[in-house]
Design goal:
The complex is a heterodimer of chains A (about 150) and B (about 700). Chain A is mainly alpha-helical. Chain A has six helices and no strands. Chain A starts with a helix and ends in a 6-residue tail after the last helix. Chain B contains 21 helices and six strands. The chains are: A mainly alpha (about 150), B mainly alpha (about 700). Chain B: One of its GO terms (molecular function) is metallopeptidase activity.
């Protein structure tokens, strides 16, 4: 993930700014924590907690976006078609100075990504929140599309 | 937020913590005893054999047994004291282990959690009755749930950063819930519970590791007991933690977060909840908030564990006590002391649960002074009025909520007798006393019914007296149940009466508890006294006296006639018990605790008076006629008392009511007043009329948040 961190962070910030603006204030600190924390430490449930979860959205957003960034090389990518994986890989490898990105996800590919995000976010979030996150990520990817942002 | 202080609710989980302590002590003591056998057992055997040889060489004749016994005991006292020290050492090691883990685990948790930041929230502590406010902190970004922990000299409420996107009312609810845990003293105790789960297997592993598992059958039986202790520990920990969550929710709701908590929990997912989950499901928590009566009662599993541990405290404790006190002036008392401990344990667990009631809410604040009309907040129970929350919690007027717990207690006592923690039972040739497995559980469940009956007649503030009486009744039940098992073969063999009659005769008219049982029964009668019940008992007694005199029976000798008198008195009392139990359940048993002795003593008094001039020793005769029927009544109450927990409990109409004519006029007038009260409360709580839900009748709802 580290090699795509700049893109992951940028897409994640767009998601948070557009859909969870009340957490934007914490974005920098949360993103830095997410970058340095080991994957097992990114979820912590105390053994004697209240029994109701109030997950911070920033790590979940970054987790979802980094999932897409690494989809080409990880098992998560098996849920996506090859064309989708390649487009995502290209998008997250992209450097703005290299010029505009290629034409971005087709509607069917967006649906694939939507389903992937929604299923992975169903762990920490309830169904409504997971749907909202998936829509927000699709929206951010569109914003990061051929025209850049 | 309001500044109104909310009193901390009384909690039955205190008794459950005591159970956890007992479980630790018993497990540690068993491990300690076996460690003794593995390390110095051969020396114990050699010294014991030498003591017997020496005593027999000095007094070899069989009739010298009473002279040999004290010499043998004095000779063996040293090794027996050492054995008791090993048991006590094991118990202390277990406690120390649990305390160590309770100290260590919160620190490990905070270290694993990582950096925390102060959170700008305060002000809930005073409202929830906490003198030293906890420090509120934000945990790292990966933290999902709020939790409270005590470490490094401070109590800390650690919040996930995600709570910041909650609405203010929901954030208040979260903080109040966590502060309610602090107010209830849960923080240390919950970690002690977790410490138990870590310490128990480690300490229990010491003996088999020392022995190298060289006797498969023995260690299999030991492992079974260790597994049962572990299962009991888990059940207790689960019950404690689940109840603590519900109580913290309730406390937070009373402080003004009722609606917010219901919304929060309603939106929460069941997620990782499962049958063995330490947390109640969100749905259960919402239901308990809407209906606080659900907080009352006792899970059958906890009752079963309480019963099993109580009989083990009694049996294993008596064994250890016998070793500890051997050769000392306290030598005759280990069984009595262990029985009282076991009785106190049951009184603290079953008794506290029975006497518990939902908290009576706020002590100040808007709307607090307004109370619902008395006539509708209370239900008359044999002339006394108890809060409806209490009467409903006791199952008065609806299905009995104690049936499962009663059966659990009964089965737990039986299980504790079948698989107990006396190290002798680990030997392959240990024989089970099946009569004890029959009598002791029935007697203990009967005692539980009596304690339930006490709680129906007296308000919760009487619980300390109820606790003392309950401990005595439970200890007496253990004594009588075990005594009956011992007497059974002799009682049946020594007479040509039917076996049941022979056993009852011995238990009621010829046992060691002929003084203690009547005293206990009279103490219960004083505690539950009601003129109506007394009058009823006198009437039944008079009818029985007349029947005893008028019914023609073949003449017997003087002793045979005296026995008929005792039976007549006892059966008059027992008839009252049965009728009242069937009619009114636990409330009926409460009345019967007054009426039955009254009926029995009326019969005895009638016989004594009739033959006043015939007695050679009138005082001795009076003592016999007073104690024997009452003892029989006490034994019979223990035999059937469990029904108090199994049958629906119905309150009486009270001495001033008009039987058969329905409610009195002032009660009819009270209903519209109740409706007005509810509407007013709803308006107070929600700011709009008629839209709120009152928590429970008789208990004012929360102040506006």
């Amino acid at each position: 993930m580290q090699e795509h961190w700049g893109e992951v962070r940028a897409v994640g910030e767009v998601v948070v700014r557009e859909s969870y603006p009340q957490e934007l204030e914490d974005f920098d600190a949360a993103a830095e924590w997410f970058r340095t924390a080991s994957p097992p430490a990114r979820t912590f449930r105390p053994p004697v907690g209240m029994g109701v979860e109030f997950a911070s959205i920033v790590p979940i957003v970054l987790s979802a976006v980094s999932l897409l960034a690494t989809a080409v090389a990880t098992a998560a990518g098996e849920e996506l078609t090859r064309a989708t994986r390649e487009k995502l890989a290209a998008a997250f490898r992209r450097r703005r100075e290299l010029g505009p990105a290629p034409a971005f996800l087709t509607p069917e590919q967006e649906r694939e990504v939507y389903r992937l995000i929604r299923s992975r976010a169903a762990g920490p979030l309830d169904d409504e929140e997971a749907r909202r996150l998936a829509e927000a990520v699709i929206g951010a990817l569109r914003l990061r599309g051929p025209d850049g942002s | 937020m309001t500044a109104a202080a909310v009193r901390r609710p009384p909690s039955a989980t205190r008794g459950r913590y005591l159970l956890i302590m007992v479980l630790l002590l018993l497990g540690g003591a068993l491990a300690g005893q076996l460690t003794h056998h593995l390390t110095v057992g051969l020396n114990w055997r050699d010294v014991t054999e030498a003591c017997f040889r020496d005593a027999y060489s000095r007094w070899p004749a069989a009739e010298d047994a009473l002279r040999r016994a004290p010499v043998i005991n004095a000779c063996r006292a040293g090794v027996e004291h050492r054995f008791a020290l090993f048991a006590a050492g094991g118990a202390l090691l277990m406690l120390a282990g649990a305390a160590f883990f309770a100290w260590l685990l919160p620190r490990v948790l905070l270290l694993r959690l990582g950096p925390r930041r102060p959170a700008p929230f305060e002000g809930w502590a005073a409202q929830l009755g906490v003198r030293r406010a906890p420090e509120v902190e934000f945990g790292p970004w990966g933290l999902r749930e709020p939790f409270t922990v005590r470490a490094w000299g401070a109590t800390r409420v650690v919040l996930p950063p995600g709570v910041r996107r909650l609405p203010a009312a929901h954030l208040d609810a979260v903080l109040r819930h966590e502060t309610a845990h602090v107010a209830a003293g849960d923080v240390t105790l919950v970690w002690l519970t977790r410490g138990l789960l870590w310490a128990l297997p480690l300490v229990m592993l010491v003996p088999p590791v020392l022995a190298g598992f060289d006797d498969g059958g023995f260690w299999l039986r030991y492992g079974l007991r260790a597994a049962l202790l572990g299962a009991a520990a888990y059940l207790l920990a689960r019950a404690v933690m689940r109840d603590r969550e519900l109580e913290a929710d309730r406390h937070a709701a009373l402080a003004g977060s009722s609606d917010a908590l219901i919304e929060l929990l309603g939106a929460a997912r069941g997620g990782r909840r499962h049958l063995l989950s330490m947390h109640p499901s969100p749905a259960e928590r919402v239901a308990a908030l809407r209906e606080p009566g659900r907080l009352l009662g006792m899970p059958a599993s906890v009752a079963a564990v309480a019963g099993a541990l109580a009989v083990n405290i009694w049996s294993a404790g008596a064994g250890i006590g016998l070793s500890a006190f051997l050769g000392t002036p306290l030598e005759p008392y280990p069984q009595l002391v262990a029985g009282l401990f076991a009785g106190a344990l049951l009184a603290a667990t079953w008794g506290l649960a029975v006497w518990r009631r939902p908290p009576r809410a706020v002590t100040s604040g808007p709307g607090v002074g307004r109370r619902p009309p008395r006539a509708v907040t209370s239900g008359p129970v044999l002339g006394r009025r108890l809060p409806r929350a209490v009467t409903s919690g006791l199952g008065i007027g609806r299905r009995p909520p104690w049936a499962g717990a009663t059966l659990g207690l009964l089965l737990g006592v039986a299980a504790g007798l079948l698989v107990n923690l006396d190290p002798r039972t680990l030997a392959g040739d240990w024989r089970i006393d099946w009569w004890a497995v029959l009598y002791v559980p029935v007697a203990v469940a009967g005692a539980a019914g009596c304690v339930l009956a006490l709680a129906t007649i007296r308000a919760p503030r009487w619980w300390p007296a109820g606790f003392v009486l309950g401990a005595a009744v439970f200890a007496g039940a253990l004594w009588i149940g075990a005594g009956l098992a011992v007497q059974q073969p002799v009682a049946v063999a020594a007479t040509d009466r039917p076996a049941l009659v022979a056993v009852l005769w011995t238990a009621g008219f010829g046992s060691a508890w002929l003084t203690a049982a009547p005293i206990a029964l009279l103490a219960l009668a004083v505690f539950t006294f009601s003129r109506t019940a007394l009058l009823g008992g006198l009437v039944v007694g008079l009818v029985a006296v007349v029947g005893r005199w008028l019914v023609p029976l073949p003449a017997l000798d003087a002793y045979g006639e005296a026995q008929r008198d005792w039976w007549a008195a006892a059966l008059a009392g027992f008839a009252v018990v049965v009728v009242m139990l069937v009619w009114r359940g636990a409330s009926g048993l409460a009345a019967a605790l007054v009426a039955a002795p009254a009926a029995a003593l009326t019969v005895s008094a009638g016989v004594l008076l009739r033959y006043m001039t015939d007695w050679d020793e009138p005082l001795a005769a009076a003592r016999v006629y007073l104690t024997r029927p009452l003892t029989m009544v006490a034994v019979l109450i223990l035999a059937v008392g469990a029904a108090a927990g199994l049958l629906p409990s119905r309150p009486g109409r009270g001495p001033r009511s008009r039987p058969g004519r329905g409610p009195r006029r002032k009660d009819w007038f009270a209903w519209p007043r109740l409706r007005r009260y509810r509407l007013a409360r709803a308006a107070d709580e929600t700011g709009r009329p008629g839209s709120g839900v009152i928590g429970e009748a008789g208990v004012p709802g929360p102040p506006p948040g």
